Protein backbone atom coordinates (compact mmCIF):
# COMPACT_ATOMS: atom_id res chain seq x y z
CA UNK A 1 0.00 0.00 0.00
CA UNK A 2 1.36 3.40 -0.97
CA UNK A 3 1.52 5.84 1.92
CA UNK A 4 1.18 9.62 2.20
CA UNK A 5 1.38 12.33 4.86
CA UNK A 6 -1.75 13.84 6.37
CA UNK A 7 -2.65 16.23 9.21
CA UNK A 8 -5.41 15.56 11.74
CA UNK A 9 -7.03 17.66 14.44
CA UNK A 10 -5.49 16.16 17.57
CA UNK A 11 -6.91 18.38 20.35
CA UNK A 12 -9.29 21.32 20.53
CA UNK A 13 -7.60 24.57 21.59
CA UNK A 14 -8.66 27.04 24.21
CA UNK A 15 -7.08 30.38 23.45
CA UNK A 16 -4.11 30.47 21.09
CA UNK A 17 -3.64 27.15 19.22
CA UNK A 18 -0.22 25.48 18.95
CA UNK A 19 1.47 22.52 17.30
CA UNK A 20 0.07 20.21 19.99
CA UNK A 21 -3.40 20.60 18.48
CA UNK A 22 -2.33 19.00 15.20
CA UNK A 23 -1.09 15.50 14.43
CA UNK A 24 1.07 14.75 11.42
CA UNK A 25 0.93 11.06 10.48
CA UNK A 26 1.24 8.62 7.58
CA UNK A 27 -1.86 7.09 6.04
CA UNK A 28 -2.70 5.14 2.90
CA UNK A 29 -3.18 6.96 -0.40
CA UNK A 30 -6.91 6.45 -1.02
CA UNK A 31 -8.22 4.57 -4.05
CA UNK A 32 -10.92 6.18 -6.17
CA UNK A 33 -14.48 5.00 -6.72
CA UNK A 34 -16.89 5.69 -9.57
CA UNK A 35 -16.94 9.38 -10.65
CA UNK A 36 -14.03 10.22 -8.41
CA UNK A 37 -10.68 11.83 -9.04
CA UNK A 38 -7.34 11.30 -7.30
CA UNK A 39 -5.78 14.72 -6.77
CA UNK A 40 -2.14 15.37 -5.90
CA UNK A 41 -1.99 18.39 -3.62
CA UNK A 42 0.16 21.25 -4.90
CA UNK A 43 -0.92 24.26 -2.81
CA UNK A 44 -2.76 24.33 0.53
CA UNK A 45 -4.56 27.44 1.75
CA UNK A 46 -4.66 28.29 5.46
CA UNK A 47 -7.33 30.76 6.52
CA UNK A 48 -8.28 32.46 9.79
CA UNK A 49 -11.83 31.02 9.79
CA UNK A 50 -10.28 27.56 10.36
CA UNK A 51 -9.55 28.63 13.93
CA UNK A 52 -13.32 28.64 14.57
CA UNK A 53 -13.62 25.13 13.11
CA UNK A 54 -11.10 23.83 15.65
CA UNK A 55 -13.73 24.43 18.36
CA UNK A 56 -16.83 22.33 18.84
CA UNK A 57 -19.31 25.16 18.43
CA UNK A 58 -22.18 25.80 16.06
CA UNK A 59 -21.28 28.11 13.19
CA UNK A 60 -21.84 28.60 9.49
CA UNK A 61 -19.41 25.70 8.80
CA UNK A 62 -19.28 22.51 10.87
CA UNK A 63 -16.31 22.01 13.23
CA UNK A 64 -13.37 19.82 12.26
CA UNK A 65 -13.78 16.38 13.82
CA UNK A 66 -11.26 15.26 16.41
CA UNK A 67 -8.91 12.62 15.02
CA UNK A 68 -9.91 13.34 11.43
CA UNK A 69 -8.04 14.98 8.57
CA UNK A 70 -8.45 18.78 8.50
CA UNK A 71 -9.89 20.18 5.30
CA UNK A 72 -9.61 23.47 3.43
CA UNK A 73 -8.96 25.07 0.07
CA UNK A 74 -6.50 23.18 -2.12
CA UNK A 75 -5.11 23.42 -5.64
CA UNK A 76 -3.89 20.17 -7.13
CA UNK A 77 -3.35 18.07 -10.23
CA UNK A 78 -5.43 15.09 -11.30
CA UNK A 79 -3.33 11.91 -11.26
CA UNK A 80 -6.13 9.45 -12.05
CA UNK A 81 -9.84 9.74 -12.74
CA UNK A 82 -12.99 7.68 -13.23
CA UNK A 83 -14.93 10.87 -13.98
CA UNK A 84 -15.81 11.96 -17.49
CA UNK A 85 -15.40 15.59 -16.41
CA UNK A 86 -11.74 15.41 -15.35
CA UNK A 87 -8.70 13.85 -17.01
CA UNK A 88 -5.21 13.07 -15.82
CA UNK A 89 -3.14 16.26 -15.89
CA UNK A 90 -6.03 18.67 -15.23
CA UNK A 91 -5.46 21.32 -12.59
CA UNK A 92 -8.30 21.57 -10.08
CA UNK A 93 -9.33 23.39 -6.94
CA UNK A 94 -11.68 22.27 -4.22
CA UNK A 95 -12.28 21.85 -0.54
CA UNK A 96 -10.08 18.86 0.28
CA UNK A 97 -8.11 17.27 3.12
CA UNK A 98 -4.71 18.33 4.43
CA UNK A 99 -3.03 15.32 2.84
CA UNK A 100 -0.74 14.75 -0.10
CA UNK A 101 -3.45 12.99 -2.14
CA UNK A 102 -7.25 13.23 -1.99
CA UNK A 103 -9.90 11.02 -3.56
CA UNK A 104 -12.48 13.67 -4.48
CA UNK A 105 -16.01 13.43 -5.84
CA UNK A 106 -16.21 15.14 -9.22
CA UNK A 107 -18.87 17.61 -8.06
CA UNK A 108 -16.50 18.90 -5.33
CA UNK A 109 -13.87 20.04 -7.83
CA UNK A 110 -13.53 22.89 -10.25
CA UNK A 111 -11.14 22.84 -13.20
CA UNK A 112 -8.74 25.79 -13.29
CA UNK A 113 -6.70 27.18 -16.14
CA UNK A 114 -2.98 27.73 -15.39
CA UNK A 115 -2.67 29.84 -18.57
CA UNK A 116 -5.24 32.42 -17.41
CA UNK A 117 -3.69 33.05 -13.98
CA UNK A 118 -1.01 31.54 -11.70
CA UNK A 119 -2.36 28.47 -9.87
CA UNK A 120 -1.95 30.19 -6.51
CA UNK A 121 -4.34 33.00 -7.49
CA UNK A 122 -7.24 30.52 -7.45
CA UNK A 123 -6.81 30.26 -3.66
CA UNK A 124 -6.37 34.01 -3.21
CA UNK A 125 -7.50 36.88 -5.38
CA UNK A 126 -9.53 34.69 -7.76
CA UNK A 127 -10.71 32.42 -4.94
CA UNK A 128 -12.47 32.72 -1.62
CA UNK A 129 -10.53 35.73 -0.20
CA UNK A 130 -10.84 37.79 -3.39
CA UNK A 131 -14.56 37.06 -3.64
CA UNK A 132 -14.98 38.02 0.03
CA UNK A 133 -13.36 41.39 -0.63
CA UNK A 134 -15.39 41.87 -3.81
CA UNK A 135 -18.83 41.12 -2.36
CA UNK A 136 -18.17 42.77 1.01
CA UNK A 137 -17.12 45.96 -0.71
CA UNK A 138 -19.54 46.06 -3.65
CA UNK A 139 -22.67 44.81 -1.87
CA UNK A 140 -22.25 46.34 1.59
CA UNK A 141 -19.41 48.89 1.63
CA UNK A 142 -20.59 50.62 -1.57
CA UNK A 143 -17.71 53.12 -1.80
CA UNK A 144 -18.31 56.16 -3.97
CA UNK A 145 -16.18 58.75 -5.73
CA UNK A 146 -14.64 61.13 -3.19
CA UNK A 147 -15.52 59.06 -0.11
CA UNK A 148 -13.03 57.72 2.42
CA UNK A 149 -12.69 53.98 3.04
CA UNK A 150 -10.68 52.36 5.82
CA UNK A 151 -9.68 48.69 5.81
CA UNK A 152 -8.42 46.80 8.87
CA UNK A 153 -6.30 43.69 8.31
CA UNK A 154 -5.41 45.60 5.17
CA UNK A 155 -2.24 43.71 4.17
CA UNK A 156 -3.90 40.30 4.26
CA UNK A 157 -5.49 38.26 1.48
CA UNK A 158 -8.91 39.88 1.80
CA UNK A 159 -7.88 43.33 3.01
CA UNK A 160 -5.45 44.26 0.23
CA UNK A 161 -8.07 43.42 -2.40
CA UNK A 162 -10.90 45.15 -0.51
CA UNK A 163 -8.88 48.38 -0.35
CA UNK A 164 -8.02 48.29 -4.04
CA UNK A 165 -11.67 47.70 -4.95
CA UNK A 166 -12.64 50.79 -2.95
CA UNK A 167 -9.95 52.69 -4.82
CA UNK A 168 -11.32 51.43 -8.17
CA UNK A 169 -14.66 52.95 -7.12
CA UNK A 170 -13.06 56.33 -6.58
CA UNK A 171 -12.63 56.35 -2.81
CA UNK A 172 -9.63 57.54 -0.84
CA UNK A 173 -8.32 54.45 0.94
CA UNK A 174 -6.50 54.05 4.25
CA UNK A 175 -5.18 50.68 5.41
CA UNK A 176 -4.43 49.45 8.92
CA UNK A 177 -1.81 46.72 9.28
CA UNK A 178 0.73 45.37 11.77
CA UNK A 179 4.22 46.00 10.33
CA UNK A 180 6.03 48.79 8.48
CA UNK A 181 6.80 46.37 5.64
CA UNK A 182 3.05 45.88 5.25
CA UNK A 183 2.13 49.56 5.40
CA UNK A 184 4.87 50.29 2.85
CA UNK A 185 3.52 47.59 0.53
CA UNK A 186 0.03 49.07 0.76
CA UNK A 187 1.05 52.60 -0.19
CA UNK A 188 3.95 51.86 -2.54
CA UNK A 189 2.55 48.86 -4.43
CA UNK A 190 -1.18 48.42 -3.79
CA UNK A 191 -2.08 52.08 -4.33
CA UNK A 192 -3.53 52.84 -0.88
CA UNK A 193 -3.45 56.56 -0.09
CA UNK A 194 -2.16 56.01 3.42
CA UNK A 195 -1.48 53.12 5.76
CA UNK A 196 -1.12 53.03 9.52
CA UNK A 197 0.78 50.50 11.65
CA UNK A 198 -1.58 49.74 14.54
CA UNK A 199 1.18 48.07 16.54
CA UNK A 200 3.52 51.06 16.64
CA UNK A 201 1.13 54.04 16.57
CA UNK A 202 0.86 55.41 20.11
CA UNK A 203 -2.64 56.72 19.48
CA UNK A 204 -4.32 54.87 16.61
CA UNK A 205 -7.49 56.94 16.82
CA UNK A 206 -5.53 60.19 16.50
CA UNK A 207 -3.42 58.87 13.58
CA UNK A 208 -6.56 57.78 11.76
CA UNK A 209 -8.19 61.12 12.43
CA UNK A 210 -5.23 62.84 10.79
CA UNK A 211 -5.27 60.35 7.89
CA UNK A 212 -9.02 60.85 7.36
CA UNK A 213 -9.67 64.62 7.66
CA UNK A 214 -13.12 64.21 6.13
CA UNK A 215 -14.16 61.30 8.30
CA UNK A 216 -14.77 57.71 7.21
CA UNK A 217 -17.63 56.57 4.96
CA UNK A 218 -16.77 52.87 4.60
CA UNK A 219 -15.01 50.71 7.17
CA UNK A 220 -14.20 47.20 5.87
CA UNK A 221 -13.55 45.46 9.16
CA UNK A 222 -11.44 42.31 9.28
CA UNK A 223 -10.28 42.57 12.88
CA UNK A 224 -12.80 44.09 15.30
CA UNK A 225 -11.37 44.81 18.78
CA UNK A 226 -9.42 47.89 19.72
CA UNK A 227 -8.72 48.75 16.06
CA UNK A 228 -12.45 49.13 15.46
CA UNK A 229 -12.77 51.08 18.67
CA UNK A 230 -10.38 53.64 17.15
CA UNK A 231 -12.34 53.76 13.87
CA UNK A 232 -16.00 53.98 14.93
CA UNK A 233 -15.91 57.50 16.39
CA UNK A 234 -14.57 58.75 13.02
CA UNK A 235 -17.43 57.32 10.98
CA UNK A 236 -19.50 59.81 9.00
CA UNK A 237 -23.29 59.83 9.11
CA UNK A 238 -24.81 56.90 7.22
CA UNK A 239 -21.41 55.16 6.94
CA UNK A 240 -21.32 51.49 5.94
CA UNK A 241 -19.41 48.77 7.74
CA UNK A 242 -19.02 45.37 6.06
CA UNK A 243 -18.13 43.20 9.08
CA UNK A 244 -15.96 40.64 7.35
CA UNK A 245 -14.01 39.17 10.26
CA UNK A 246 -12.99 39.67 13.87
CA UNK A 247 -9.56 38.06 14.01
CA UNK A 248 -8.61 39.98 17.17
CA UNK A 249 -11.04 37.81 19.13
CA UNK A 250 -10.55 34.38 17.54
CA UNK A 251 -8.04 33.22 20.15
CA UNK A 252 -9.59 34.86 23.20
CA UNK A 253 -10.74 32.50 25.90
CA UNK A 254 -12.98 33.53 28.78
CA UNK A 255 -14.58 36.97 28.87
CA UNK A 256 -13.71 39.29 26.03
CA UNK A 257 -14.99 42.78 26.74
CA UNK A 258 -15.38 44.54 23.44
CA UNK A 259 -15.18 48.16 22.44
CA UNK A 260 -18.18 50.35 23.18
CA UNK A 261 -19.27 51.01 19.61
CA UNK A 262 -23.04 51.16 19.97
CA UNK A 263 -23.39 54.89 20.68
CA UNK A 264 -21.57 55.61 17.43
CA UNK A 265 -23.80 53.25 15.47
CA UNK A 266 -26.83 55.22 16.70
CA UNK A 267 -25.37 58.72 16.57
CA UNK A 268 -23.95 58.34 13.04
CA UNK A 269 -26.79 56.06 11.81
CA UNK A 270 -24.26 53.44 10.70
CA UNK A 271 -25.17 50.36 8.74
CA UNK A 272 -23.11 47.45 10.11
CA UNK A 273 -23.59 44.18 8.28
CA UNK A 274 -21.90 40.87 8.92
CA UNK A 275 -21.62 38.62 5.89
CA UNK A 276 -20.18 35.29 4.80
CA UNK A 277 -18.80 35.02 1.28
CA UNK A 278 -21.06 32.01 0.59
CA UNK A 279 -24.08 34.33 0.91
CA UNK A 280 -23.16 35.36 -2.63
CA UNK A 281 -22.50 31.87 -4.05
CA UNK A 282 -24.96 32.43 -6.90
CA UNK A 283 -22.84 35.35 -8.10
CA UNK A 284 -19.36 33.81 -7.69
CA UNK A 285 -18.83 33.51 -11.42
CA UNK A 286 -19.58 37.19 -11.99
CA UNK A 287 -17.31 38.18 -9.11
CA UNK A 288 -14.43 35.97 -10.28
CA UNK A 289 -14.76 37.34 -13.83
CA UNK A 290 -14.62 40.92 -12.58
CA UNK A 291 -11.58 40.22 -10.41
CA UNK A 292 -9.90 38.35 -13.30
CA UNK A 293 -10.45 41.30 -15.64
CA UNK A 294 -9.02 43.78 -13.14
CA UNK A 295 -5.98 41.52 -12.68
CA UNK A 296 -5.41 41.19 -16.42
CA UNK A 297 -5.75 44.94 -16.88
CA UNK A 298 -3.18 45.48 -14.13
CA UNK A 299 -5.68 47.43 -12.04
CA UNK A 300 -5.42 44.96 -9.17
CA UNK A 301 -2.21 43.64 -7.61
CA UNK A 302 -1.76 41.00 -4.93
CA UNK A 303 0.93 39.42 -2.81
CA UNK A 304 1.42 35.91 -1.44
CA UNK A 305 3.47 34.33 1.31
CA UNK A 306 4.28 30.75 0.34
CA UNK A 307 5.79 28.33 2.85
CA UNK A 308 7.51 25.22 1.48
CA UNK A 309 6.74 21.64 2.44
CA UNK A 310 3.76 19.67 3.71
CA UNK A 311 5.03 19.60 7.31
CA UNK A 312 4.96 23.40 7.49
CA UNK A 313 1.15 23.66 7.16
CA UNK A 314 0.48 24.08 10.93
CA UNK A 315 3.27 26.68 11.20
CA UNK A 316 1.80 28.69 8.34
CA UNK A 317 -1.67 28.51 9.90
CA UNK A 318 -0.44 29.62 13.33
CA UNK A 319 1.53 32.44 11.70
CA UNK A 320 -1.73 34.07 10.56
CA UNK A 321 -2.39 35.05 14.17
CA UNK A 322 1.05 36.59 14.52
CA UNK A 323 0.80 38.56 11.30
CA UNK A 324 3.62 36.62 9.61
CA UNK A 325 1.95 36.76 6.19
CA UNK A 326 1.85 39.53 3.64
CA UNK A 327 -1.12 38.76 1.40
CA UNK A 328 -2.43 35.25 0.93
CA UNK A 329 -0.76 32.58 3.04
CA UNK A 330 -0.21 29.33 1.14
CA UNK A 331 1.90 26.20 1.49
CA UNK A 332 3.58 24.58 -1.50
CA UNK A 333 3.42 20.84 -1.03
CA UNK A 334 4.56 19.50 -4.41
CA UNK A 335 5.70 20.77 -7.80
CA UNK A 336 3.20 22.18 -10.25
N1 LIG B 1 -16.84 36.84 6.04
C1 LIG B 1 -16.22 35.99 5.24
O1 LIG B 1 -16.84 35.28 4.43
C2 LIG B 1 -14.74 35.88 5.32
C3 LIG B 1 -14.01 35.20 4.34
C4 LIG B 1 -12.60 35.19 4.43
C5 LIG B 1 -11.98 35.81 5.50
N2 LIG B 1 -12.74 36.42 6.44
C6 LIG B 1 -12.11 37.13 7.57
O2 LIG B 1 -11.36 38.18 7.02
C7 LIG B 1 -10.23 38.45 7.85
C8 LIG B 1 -8.96 38.41 7.01
O3 LIG B 1 -8.82 37.11 6.45
P1 LIG B 1 -7.62 36.80 5.47
O4 LIG B 1 -7.83 35.46 4.90
O5 LIG B 1 -7.43 37.95 4.57
O6 LIG B 1 -6.40 36.70 6.49
P2 LIG B 1 -5.07 37.54 6.41
O7 LIG B 1 -5.46 38.96 6.64
O8 LIG B 1 -4.35 37.19 5.17
O9 LIG B 1 -4.20 37.01 7.64
C9 LIG B 1 -4.52 37.35 8.93
C10 LIG B 1 -3.91 38.73 9.34
O10 LIG B 1 -4.66 39.23 10.43
C11 LIG B 1 -3.85 40.10 11.20
N3 LIG B 1 -4.06 39.80 12.63
C12 LIG B 1 -3.77 38.65 13.27
N4 LIG B 1 -4.10 38.75 14.58
C13 LIG B 1 -4.61 40.01 14.75
C14 LIG B 1 -5.12 40.73 15.87
N5 LIG B 1 -5.18 40.18 17.09
N6 LIG B 1 -5.54 42.00 15.68
C15 LIG B 1 -5.47 42.58 14.46
N7 LIG B 1 -5.00 41.95 13.36
C16 LIG B 1 -4.57 40.68 13.51
C17 LIG B 1 -2.39 39.82 10.80
O11 LIG B 1 -1.89 40.95 10.12
P3 LIG B 1 -1.25 42.22 10.89
O12 LIG B 1 0.22 42.10 10.70
O13 LIG B 1 -1.86 43.38 10.19
O14 LIG B 1 -1.65 42.11 12.35
C18 LIG B 1 -2.49 38.63 9.86
O15 LIG B 1 -1.53 38.68 8.84
C19 LIG B 1 -10.27 37.41 8.96
O16 LIG B 1 -10.91 37.97 10.07
C20 LIG B 1 -11.12 36.31 8.38
O17 LIG B 1 -11.75 35.54 9.36
C21 LIG B 1 -14.09 36.46 6.37
UniProtKB/TrEMBL annotation:
Superkingdom of source: Bacteria
Domain Enoyl reductase (ER): 18-331
InterPro entries with a match to the protein in the record: ADH-like_C (IPR013149), ADH_N_2 (IPR041694), ER (IPR020843), GroES-like_sf (IPR011032), MDR_fam (IPR045010), NAD(P)-bd_dom_sf (IPR036291)
Name of the featured protein: NADP-dependent oxidoreductase
Organism: Alteribacter lacisalsi
Record's keyword annotation contains Oxidoreductase: yes
Entry-linked Gene3D superfamilies: Medium-chain alcohol dehydrogenases, catalytic domain, NAD(P)-binding Rossmann-like Domain
MF term (GO), any: oxidoreductase activity, acting on the CH-CH group of donors, NAD or NADP as acceptor
Any Pfam family hit: ADH_zinc_N
PANTHER family the record matches: PROSTAGLANDIN REDUCTASE, PROSTAGLANDIN REDUCTASE 1
Keywords annotated in UniProt: Oxidoreductase
Amino acid sequence: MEMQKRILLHKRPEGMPGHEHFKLEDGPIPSIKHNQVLVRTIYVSVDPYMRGRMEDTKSYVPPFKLGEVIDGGIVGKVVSSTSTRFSEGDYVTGHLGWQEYNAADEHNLRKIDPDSAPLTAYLGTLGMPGLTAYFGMTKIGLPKEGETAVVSGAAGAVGMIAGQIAKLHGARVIGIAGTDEKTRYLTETAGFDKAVNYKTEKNLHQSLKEACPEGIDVYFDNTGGTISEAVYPLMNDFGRIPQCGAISSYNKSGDDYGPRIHPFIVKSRLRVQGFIVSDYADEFQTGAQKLGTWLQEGRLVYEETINEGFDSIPDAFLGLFEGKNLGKQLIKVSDE
